Amino acid sequence: MSNSSIGTTLPTSSTDAATPVTTTSAAAQKAPEDLVMECLKSTEVYEEIALSDFITETNAELIDGSVFLDTTETGTHKVNVPCLYQGQVYTKTLRYTVEDTTPPIILSGGWSANHLCGTTFDLGDYVGFADNYDKTPTLTYSGEIDPDSVGTYPITATIQDSSGNSESWELTVNVVNELPPYEDNNPRVDFSDFIAQYDNGNVRFGIDVSAWQADIDFDAVRDAGCSFVIIRIGTYYDAIKMDDYFRINLEHAAAAGLDVGIYYYTTDRSVDGIKEHARWITDQLDGQELDFPIVFDWEDFSSFQEYGMSIRDLNDLYEVFADEMESYGYSAMLYSSKNFLNNFWSEKTKASHPVWLAHYTDETDYAGNFSIWQASAYGRIPGIAGDVDMDIQYLDMPMD
To answer: Is residue 8 within 8 Å of 28, Cβ to Cβ?
Structure first.
């Protein structure tokens, strides 16, 4: 992103909402005492506010009121504003405060956590949380827990950010001798029934696959009524790893006449890392055209606090990914569940590129826009042994 500078020359209008106002040179004349310019005394961190809205009263003409104020850091700031007054260009210095008044959010509340008796208890192992601005909000709790004694322990957890904003909730920790086994009681859905339930003439149906599905007969998948497949290209935990079945899935799906797209699962937290991943993806594709945008899949929210990022940081990383993909001739799509689309990803992020919604329910009540709906993780389709995710593409929604 380029920085706009306010100086003695007349600047062009800013079109980048994130462009900050920077300090001017001293060449412009100091404003006379009868030049009036009043402004808001405070603004919220990351608020996008132009000088024309920030300045509440003036008898001068702003040279460029469309330039945005710098609100990326809390604290007291000043901005030098060029203006035209009685035929002369002057600079008026204004001071303002950037505040953070937004409390942290609970990403995973651990409302009924099971803790193995005799092991060290750390509440952070059971809850996930994040803050819009603070990279390291603190977690505390009140109440007594004896991790060496089987029992049920009600506690109150609190997360607080560096600005003093906090959020509290109640949960129960169950100290047990043996962790209960996972029970899968989810009903399986035949792909034919899935189509019959949702076919309204303005949709088409697909699946997304990875090495979890192993060998796939894509001809059988196609004949079952599947129109597209989104294939995992790889993952990143501590290193980039190609999905074991990516090459063969891509080749066989295309040969079967299915439209194809790819998704990439990552837990990276750095700009350089995301750029490296984008380069790696395009190297693997080697110019191959796709029928869908390349999907960004970041979903380790249950332990988000361990990454040392704010909510804003991850939103920015997705934008870096999207910009990089565009520079290589591809477009991007965001994959996320309803919960995190509502509570984590910003409206600006969701509006910038298509959204692939994950919401396992008969009828989604997600109010935002989405181009694809992953409606089930328990589909059954000819050509695949076992479960597969089933997806609906809405043909009237943009894919670019």
So the answer is: yes
Give CB contacts under 8 A, 24+ apart, made by 316-319.
Answer: 316/271, 317/268, 317/269, 317/271, 317/274, 318/345, 318/349, 319/349, 319/352
Do the domains 4-99 and 189-394 sit in the same CATH topology, yes or no?
no
CA gap 271, 358 in Å, rounded: 26
| Start-to-end C-alpha separation, the chain | 21
Question: Which pair of tokens denotes residue 382?
Answer: 């000819």
- Where do the domains of the chain lie? 4-99, 105-176, 189-394
Rounded Cα distance between 28 and 336, Å, is: 49
215 burial via Cβ count (<10 Å: 0-12, 13-18, 19+): exposed
Exposed, middle or buried by CB within 10 Å (0-12, 13-18, 19+), for 239?
Answer: exposed
CATH 1.10.10 is held by the domain 4-99: no
CATH of domain 105-176: 2.60.40.10
* Whole-number Å distance between alpha carbons of 336 and 314: 13
Q: Give pLDDT tens digits along the chain (400 positions).
A: 333 333 333 333 333 444 344 333 445 678 898 999 999 999 999 999 999 999 999 999 999 999 999 999 999 999 999 999 999 999 999 999 999 999 999 999 988 899 999 999 999 999 999 999 999 999 999 999 999 999 999 999 999 999 999 999 999 999 999 999 988 889 999 999 999 999 998 999 999 999 999 999 999 999 999 999 999 999 999 999 999 999 999 999 999 999 999 999 999 999 999 999 999 999 999 999 999 999 999 999 999 999 999 999 999 999 999 999 999 999 999 999 999 999 999 999 999 999 999 999 999 999 999 999 999 999 999 999 999 999 999 999 988 8
Selected from 3.40.190.10, 3.20.20.140, 3.30.70.3290, 3.20.20.80, the CATH number assigned to the domain covering 189-394 reads 3.20.20.80
Q: Are 300 and 253 in contact (CB under 8 A)?
A: no
